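Interim report to the steering committee. The following record documents the input for Glutamyl-tRNA(Gln) amidotransferase subunit A, mitochondrial (510 residues).
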Amino acid sequence: MLSLTIKEASLALREGKISPVELCRKCLSRIKKTQHLNAYITVTEEQAVAQALEAEARLMRGSPKGVLDGIPFAVKDNFCTENIKTTCASRMLKDYTPPFNATVVQKLLDQGAVLVGKTNMDEFAMGSGSTDGAFGPVRNPWGYAAPYRESPGVDPDSDWVVTGGSSGGSAAAVASLTSFLALGSDTGGSTRNPGALCGAVALKPTYGLLSRHGLIPLVNSLDVPGVLTRSVGDAALVLDVLKGVDVKDSTTISSHSTFAPLPEDLDVSKLCVGIPKEYHAPGLSEDTLQQWRRVADMFERAGARVQQVSLPHTQFSIVCYHVLCCAEVASNMARFDGLQYGHRSRTDSSTETMYATSRHEGFNDVVRGRILSGNYFLLKQSYDKYFLKAQKVRRLITEDFKQVFESGVDVLLTPSTLTDAAPYSDFTQEDNRTRSLQEDVFTQPVNMAGLPAVSVPTALSGRGLPIGLQLIAPALQDRALLSVAQWIEQRVHFPSIRDSEGPSEALSTA
């Protein structure tokens, strides 16, 4: 039952094959059985059961709120949740309980969805592995699946693999069958990266299509709420629920609401698929390259026009992203001073001392490093040299995408990550910034341009770990993007982790 898609689970609830309470308890039980993954920071068992009881009463009356009524979901722990701790995986906010819900969370609750917990992440979403949070690293469920554990030379106890980040807990929650959907945040690939490494569908919508109200900010000009599901159709369903103008977020944009299903048999013969030559990056694994070629060949055989395109300023994107990210981080983190909320140091000989020690104790090395870098980039003598120049480069990156799409290209096909998931012992050999430079190389240009993108799992690597490919579309073409993604999904037959009891998960064909 837990391996169903949202649409299938919703139908089962309406047909009485299972009740919302039973489904909720199955998810909660599954969370307990997979505690070794460390996917959750807070499990909201009491609230979840109460919400499931309300959903059950509505279904018995024949008046469900919507297709999500009774469906368990999880939320990354940087989205505010009323009367439920929101920590951002940081000591700074370890006891913070917001008095309101983020808009996207409230929209799911308004549809009758059942919140089962808040998921683990990199501290304040600064990372690409979900290894740097105050509550410990998240483990990838596929590291406990038979294809990887039975690979030659793998020690199942010590060679566990990372989820990617920073929304690793959300990706692990969906992949381990503890929730049917999860919210993540995507600033430079933080939803698509773990989605690819955990074998989940990960959608980064057009900037402004989903409200950021209640999402504790990392980089305001890049942050987008992301959606993680088990199928492309489910991602489209959730997108329809979440999108729309929010008076509490001035950056939101209007969109015509539609709950129409994606086309089941899309004709791709009229599509032009672009392959950016700059995305043949150093370090791209042979397995990933093979899948990239395979899917491009699938499009060609179906009659689509596949052509190489150029995004010349991509090579500068990751450096530009680093400058802009650190600058906005320095501004956003200034609010955490230990005075009004958040961690307060006991060292309070003066206001300045208390302020400094509170931030030193509350933030980890990664956050402190980005704050220091951002303040340097914003100094009077550095502003033109770094921050202003980065903004100009960002405009050039945006123009690259615009020119490609105006030339007749409908969608871009790229890898999501360089390789499959790395063992934790290897991943932590390098510092956070170096890892982010490597892991976000394909994903962060999309955030710079504000475009929609989705990562779709396509196959298992030779090590038995998921590989995902990314599709990118023009702004506000999110549904068209998902239609193409579903076309791929229907043809690649990616295996999914079956709902089983053992620690070594069996696999079945989706």
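Residues 383-406 form the longest helix (24 residues). The committee is asked to note this result when reviewing the revised timeline.
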